[in-house]
Amino acid sequence: MFLSSSDRKRRPSLNRTFPGLCMVFVLLILSAGNLGAQTVATYNFDDGTADGWTSFNGATTPVASSAAAFSGTGSLLTTTGSGGAGGPSISLNGILQPGAKYTITGYVQLTNGESATDANFTIQRSDPSCSGGTCYDTIGTYQVPVSSSGWAQIGGSYTVSATATGLNLYAQLVGATTAQSFYLDDVVITETAPPPGGTPVASYNFTDGGLDGWAPFGSATLTNTVSPLSDPTGDKSSLLVSNRTATFMGPSLNLLNVNGVVAGATYQVTAYVLLAAPDSSNPTVTLSTKTVDCAATSGAFGTIATSGALSSTAWTQVQGTFSFSDLPGAPTNLTLYLQSSSATDSFYLGDVAISELAPAPLSANQQDNSGITSTFEDGGLDGWSSRTGSSTVTNTTATAHSGTHSLLTTGRTANFDGPQISVSNKMYVGSEYNISGWIKLLPTDGSSHIINMSLQTTIDGNTSFPSVTGYPGVTVPADGNWHQISVTGYNMGSAYDQGSASLYFQTVPPSGNDLVSFYLDDFQLTYVAPPTIQTNIPSIFKSYEEFFPIGAAVDTTDLSGPNMQLLTMHFDSMTPGNDLKWSSVENTKGVYTYATGDSEVGLAECHNMRVRGQNLVWATGEQTPAYATGDGTNSAANQTVVIANIQEHIQNEVQHFGTAVYAWDVVNEPLDPTQSDCLVHGPFYQVLGPSYIDVAFKAAKQYAPAGTKLFINEFSTTVANRQACLIKVVRELRERGVPVDAIGHEMHNDINFPTPESVKQAVETVARNFPGIDQQVTELDVSVYNGGDTVSNFGNSIPASVLAEQGWLYDKYFDVFRELKGKLSAVTIWGMADNDTWLDSFPVDRTDYPLPFDMNLQAKPAYWGIIDHTKLPGYGLKFSITETNGGKGDKNTRVFTMTATNGDVGPAYATQITGFTLKQIFGKHCSPVVTPQSSFPVVLGDIPASGAASTTFEVNFTGCGEDALFTLSAPWNSSVYHTGTFFLPVLYVNRQLGW
Asked: Is 779 among the catalytic positions?
């Protein structure tokens, strides 16, 4: 197959275990970086109560009020004391953790008639480190202006003292000298960083005399006992683990039974171990996991951490982090257990703690998806600021894209010094956004500048600058006009610490500095909700159950959400598009990275889908690491190295996946019709000649499970010279005993090539030459562009007529596939929907639309061509004929009118009549002359639903006897591939039409 840059996407995935391979690590071992924020408390007062808030420092008792609200229907109303002091308060004891970091925000508005003043949030902290035992900590800005005309946000970031013993949050007015009333609303407290060691989730000290939910792993014995030494907390209660006869045996805990352990979060496990007796071999202990889910029904095993050497005279700590996923299916068991390098040593376990280092990412319905709109019409900066603090951003009325105001950035000191705005809690990892702003350059001097829109995100001290616009950016002329910088469907892929994400505009000159000033207006950041698939249409694979499986190429974006729903609804087979290729699984010799492929194959197993493996050896060397072909020479020494590389790689991969993969493209795209031996003279060929194919197939046959289908996979097999090479090469391979038992026809087709008839001929030619050989269509897609056309680009405006044409072509292809039942064992489509296709970057960068579903995962004509052509535009198109006159007074000339009447499904695009033929069936031979209204094909154009179009034909019957009889046939087509023939069985010369 061909490869695009978009096909190279990689994301962390869940590992799994397959038959024939030792158990592998199932859990994602993640760093302790903060992957997201967790809301720990909210107060919106919409239920008509004060939500537990009370009076502080002489203020009135706060009450819920419906007179004003920042959002929802209610807020909290409080009046300060007579001197202006006091306000509403809430205890945060048990809500905030010592050492953790939070954001605490709320909104304040004065009641009508109150004089403008300032406000803030403050925490009264009881802490032995404070003078007198009490401190008062301002949250965020000390003086936030507040008034009765609108809501103002107060609050900010707060880190809890590790020695705090009491926390009381209150809102107050600053500067008030008399009693004033104000509303408080939408108080939100979010943990942005856990306390050192994480937020406690569970601890086990065994002081209650029981096992605390722990159970033996294997046949070990667990006993609650008193250890000979106190653990680091000073406690001697522990579990004695004895009667071990294998290294894996030890104590275990089902983490799914631990309250607070959820998928997607990151946890730290700490435990202490003491040997029951000395052991000079210095054994270690390992924290391990066993996960059982639909893809690993016998369990997949992983390692969290291994301790240093254990001792019988001191406790040894073992500590590590873990996370788990609900993909490809939620675990039914997640067991944490301790094993030891010694198979027989007994040991004590004490002081086990599990803490959360990072919460699970927010789901879409928990996010703030309100976006950002900046029009600057209020005269302010709308949250924008100078990125460096050196440049100046000002609200101006000098010009505007709409309205009367815009934002002007001047005095820039660097290319990256431009206007920025925080997108923290406005953009979330894994979500999609449309982002747009209008730019006007200053001064108007006719020069051109590249404007780039980027993000700055920081996580765990690491800062990155992902470009939002395609790099380097958009060329904007200084012509005095406004120019839009717009990006649709931007997928946020950068995690960040709370408050550490901003979006900015900058210049990117070819070299040096470009410090041009510019205006910004009408900025819009909009959340794009995930599409919803149609559940009321027929499943593709179920519609073809009597013929063959229907597959799709997948990547990690198809493992969850609507893409996964679309995949599992319409396909019963899958091919990982890139994640099983050599460079993906063994880019460094002997180092295997199966995680991504495991996730995809695991999803297939969880949904009873078949899996094709693509591929083991790529003849051209694409997606193949350099080491695979050694030093590239054909020396005897290097040939030995390369043969071993091929055998080792194939053995490891096919045994890893075992029976989970039923078919492998063993050698991909080996043909080159320009070579005398018909083979690509790629890097493997340069070393081994044609025998590299023998080595690969024999290794696959030796190591893959019995019954695995072994394919040669090739493109353009409908082209005569490539088809001839395919027959020649396969015959030669089989004659020398190479186990090629299947052929894959890729079928990356264009809208004008190949014809459905040539597809049928290609499969039948192979079947005729190799009776009983398995054949599949392995990578089907249909580009909307003609073959060889690298100029056209429909962009976001694909004509409906082109989609209809593509739909009718899919219909013809699948007609052929059904006719080939028994010769084709499967059809795989190279993707599912137009939002994810390699053709967007091949052969040039442009938008293509080659798949059954559109960019919003909705069925399009291509889908209906596969499922039901009666739903295609133009279905129901019919032709009729009438005689309009006797032929302009000439008794030998008659005029016939052909009328095309469309059905009611949709337009019949580009309808035309391609012929008008009379065949004599009776009487003395004669040759009528047919004169169409225009040259053939006679174009009727686009006929709307339930509409009609007509054309006339003159027929001169001079020389024909009165008894002459004819048949009339008039072939026609619409949308190119919607074809038919109007047929009249008898046409009389001696009378008008009367049927």
From this structure: yes
